[in-house]
């Protein structure tokens, strides 16, 4: 079983927003929140800079707060 990555409120809310928006967010979200999520493989970005929830991010979200 993978280690559960601890997330602060902003990071947790970011994952929830991505899940609720069909996996895509606008590129103008705060970078400090997304950097940790991106570096842990929970989110990625497309060529336009829009972030999306990865499979790993969806698994982390399903683990609960």
Fill in the CATH topology.
Arc Repressor Mutant, subunit A
Q: Total number of β-strand segments? A: 2
Corresponding CATH superfamily? Winged helix-like DNA-binding domain superfamily/Winged helix DNA-binding domain
Question: How do the strands line up in the largest sheet?
Answer: 1-2
Helix content class: 40-55%
Total discrete domains? 1
Radius of gyration: 11 Å
Are there runs of 5+ residues with pLDDT below 50, and where?
none
Please report the distance between the alpha carbons of the first and last residues: 17 Å
The CATH C-level class name: Mainly Alpha
Question: What letter string, H or E per element, gives the SSE order?
Answer: HHEEH
Percentage beta strand? 5-15%
Word description of this protein:
With 65 residues, this protein is mainly α. It has one domain (9-62): Winged helix-like DNA-binding domain superfamily/Winged helix DNA-binding domain (Arc Repressor Mutant, subunit A). Helix content is 45%, strand content 9%. The protein has 3 helices and 2 strands; from the N terminus they run ααββα. It has helices at residues 9-20, 31-39, 55-62; strands at residues 43-45, 51-53. A two-stranded antiparallel sheet has the order 1-2. The radius of gyration is 11 Å and the shape is globular. The model has no long low-confidence stretch (mean pLDDT 82).
In short:
This protein has 65 residues and is mainly alpha-helical.
Question: Which helices and strands appear, and what pairs or packs with what?
Answer:
Blueprint: H1 9-20, H2 31-39, E1 43-45, E2 51-53, H3 55-62
Antiparallel strand pairs: 1-2
Helix pairs in contact: 1-2
């Amino acid at each position: 079983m993978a280690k559960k990555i601890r997330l602060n409120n902003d990071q947790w809310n970011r994952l929830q927003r991505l899940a609720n928006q069909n996996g895509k967010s606008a590129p103008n979200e705060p970078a400090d929140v997304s950097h940790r999520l991106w570096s842990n493989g929970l989110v990625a970005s497309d060529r336009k800079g829009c972030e999306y929830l990865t499979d790993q991010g969806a698994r982390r979200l399903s683990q609960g707060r």
